[in-house]
Amino acid sequence: MDLLDLIDTVQSVADGVLFGATYALLGIGFTLIFGVMYKINLAYAAASIGAAYASLLILAGVKAQPILVFLAAAGCGGIIGWLIYLVGFRFIPLANPLATLMSTVGLLLLIDEIIVHTTAGVPLNYPALFADVIIRAGPFNLRGDLLFVFALGCLCMVVLLLMLYRTQLGLATRAVSQQPVAAQLCGISITAVNALTFIVTGFLGGIAGAMIGAAIGMLSPLLSLPLTVKGLIVTVIGGLGSIPGAIIAGLVVGGLENVFQFFRGVSERDLYVMLLLFAFLVFRPRGLFASPHVGD
Amino acid sequence: MLKGYAALAALGAIAAFGLAAPASAQERTVKITGFGAKSGVVRVFGINSEAALKAAAEQINNAGGVTLGDGSKAKFVIEFLDDRCNAEEGISVVRRIASTDAFVAVGPTCSNVAESLFGILQKKVGDTSDSGLQFPIIADVAAKGGLAKISEWAFRNVPSEFEMYKSLFAWLKTQHPQLKTIYGGVEKDFAHSNATFGVMKAQAEANGLQILGQGEWLLADTTFSTQVREMRRANADIVAISAHPFTTCGVLKEMDRQGVKPKLLIGLTSSSSIETLQGCAKQAEGIIIPTSFAPVTPEATKAAEQVAKFGGSADLHSAAAYEIMFILKDVIEQQKIMAKPDTVAADRDKMRQGLAALKETNGLLGKVGRTADREAIKPFLYVHAKDGSWQVLYKPAS
Fold first, then answer.
1. Cβ of B377: how many Cβ atoms within 10 Å?
2. What is the mean pLDDT of chain B?
């Protein structure tokens, strides 16, 4: 490996880690729902992309500032999250894990087709902040828009952690997650907490969708499925139910993906990411940070 | 007096109705079924093909329709089915079409569908040991080279990308002899992009360009920094990108960020579309793409307007569908197709024979040659992205 290769490797890791912030945001959404309900919401990434699309559609014709588009995406994400809860979870027997899993598979496909039928599958431009900013540090370049995505992702994670550990809603969420029966006996409505969890994660998903759109510069229905897979990988590697785990795993997966791409090429890149997933499932099935389940 | 006029008008209306009723009862229709992707990420191709078929059908119908074998006139009716760009769906759709009175179908969108679908057709006409489907299909979009060879029932009105890139690289050699090196980029998991990249590479080498390497990515990839860094290190004179608009734009944007400015950019035929300009007009500025459609003739301009009226966009793919309707009209009339339920098998056979016998057809940019292996040799031109639109750069002599 010569110096140029070394520089490119470091640059690849840096780019991947910055983009990995979007994986982390998706991973948090998956993990939060799993942490509270012990259910996997496979429609989460599609809903996130759907929210980003919705923000473009509702602001179509208005020359909106990017930040306004991002806020609209977050709002749409919250609404879509609540709708997903209503359609895919609220009236489906939660005791049967397969029922909700399949309902979210159906919702994933439904959201994807709605996007395709609304846009004819044509990629749409998505606004970005600091898209023209490149920070140069010696031989390395850092994209301004990715740094913004990274910073916003970190901010969202901090706000979410504060919400979980410093608010009544967070307390209720953790109570339902850890001791649902005891939480009910204390007067906490499980249905309300579940719905709010979907709204909060939907809000986060909307931001994730917007950040993905901003990082790529475009939105395409092509994104839903690969991002669903990435979100799940991040959730498993980080540890099901662990928010710090999802954050670290998102950044790690983003960085490793670029390293695999650099050394082994595109045809083998995803193979190694999958091998990493299998390695975790076999040798560390609880992921990086998940603690053993101590619920009811 | 007024009462008299009213009575006369009523009589006139009754007479007109009485005369018109038998005429409309006799009016015949010929249903042409198109099929292609109308869901999933390539839905826009299906929308454009359907619009083009309908626009051409309306033109033909307005001019009196098509003359059938018994001398009667018929109007075209278009139906368009979705194959989801999926080979199994495509086969199922065509089996469904073949179970009706249809004597020809137009499609599909995706090369992977065409490849599998043509495989279920009878390979050689008259081979009694081959139980393959005996049903003529003419493709409008599926672009991978040489697909019609699979079956004698398969036809295509698709431009030859081999001829287009052969011509383009030969032209570049004469226009830009100072350019010596090329770097490629390819969307590895898409049949069309991959196949065309092979053509680009072969033609670049044949014209003396040194290939410095290639970057690869997937259709749904979101980051291209690693590939573009390799491209930057290669520092080639020409960069050729064989990818569809979504990743073409992703790569062009990353090239812009990393300051990769080749002396010349070449793109994939399918990227000479409005999607590329919507996605990255600034970064795509100057990219040269060969295409078999641009609104540069009165016919092509009119076709583009008509297709837009039906909610589609005329490009090199949908223009082929538009032309196909006129080809079908001519073949129906030449072969005296009856279009009756009891003549279906004979009509299909005559349709196949008629399509196979074609030596030349009328295209929107000029005469289209037909090859012995049922492919088209279409006129083409080179366009380049300039000031946010596609403009004609050069039209090679046909």
1. 16
2. 91
Same domain, B268 and B284: yes
Nearest partner of A21 among A250, A216, A259, judged by Cα: A250
Minimal Cα–Cα distance from B191 to chain A, Å? 15
Shared domain for B93 and B107, answered yes or no, is yes
| CATH domain A3-283 topology | ABC transporter involved in vitamin B12 uptake, BtuC (1.10.3470)
Same domain, B248 and B173: yes
The answer to whether the CB atoms of B217 and A266 lie below 8 A apart is yes
- What's the burial of B373, exposed, middle or buried (CB within 10 Å: 0-12/13-18/19+)? middle
Is the same domain home to B207 and B192?
yes
Q: In this predicted structure, what is the pLDDT of residue B11? A: 46
CB B73 within 8 A of CB B28: yes
User: Which residues, listed in sequence order, are joined to residue B81 by a DSSP beta bridge?
Assistant: B35
Torsion of CA B262, B263, B266, B267, to 10 degrees: 50
3-state secondary structure of A212: helix
Alpha-carbon span B241 to B216, nearest angstrom: 10
A19: Cβ contacts below 8 Å, ≥ 6 apart: A146, A149, A215, A254, A258, B222, B223
Over the Cα atoms of chain B, what is R_g?
24
Q: How confident is the model at residue B23 (pLDDT cuts 50, 70, 90)?
A: very low
Once rounded to an integer, what is the mean pLDDT over residues A102-106?
94
Backbone angles phi, psi at B272, to 5 degrees: -85, 50
Residues of chain B contacting A141 with CB distance shorter than 8 Å = 257-258
Half-sphere exposure of B143 (CA within 13 A, CB side): 29
The reply to whether B105 and B82 lie within a common domain is: yes
Containing domain of residue B195, as a range? 161-291
Among partner residues B41, B188, B233, which is closest to A222 by beta-carbon distance?
A: B41
Backbone angles phi, psi at A189, to 5 degrees: -80, 115
Q: Is A16 on the interface with B (CB under 8 A)?
A: yes
pLDDT, residue A295, reads 46
Nearest to A218 among B41, B218, B246 (CB): B246
Confidence at B374, pLDDT banded by 50, 70, 90: very high
Q: Which of A200, A202, A180 has the alpha carbon at shortest distance from A191?
A: A180
On whether residue B172 sits in a domain, the answer given is yes
Q: For chain B, what is the domain count?
A: 2
Residue A5, C-beta contacts closer than 8 angstroms, at least 6 positions apart: none
Residues B80, B125: one domain?
yes
User: What are B54's two structure tokens?
Assistant: 């309908």
What is the model's pLDDT at position B397? 77
- Tokens linked to A225: 């499925």
Please identify, among B291, B324, B357, the residue that sits at the C-terminal boundary of a domain: B291
Judgement on whether residues B201 and B250 belong to the same structural domain of the protein: yes
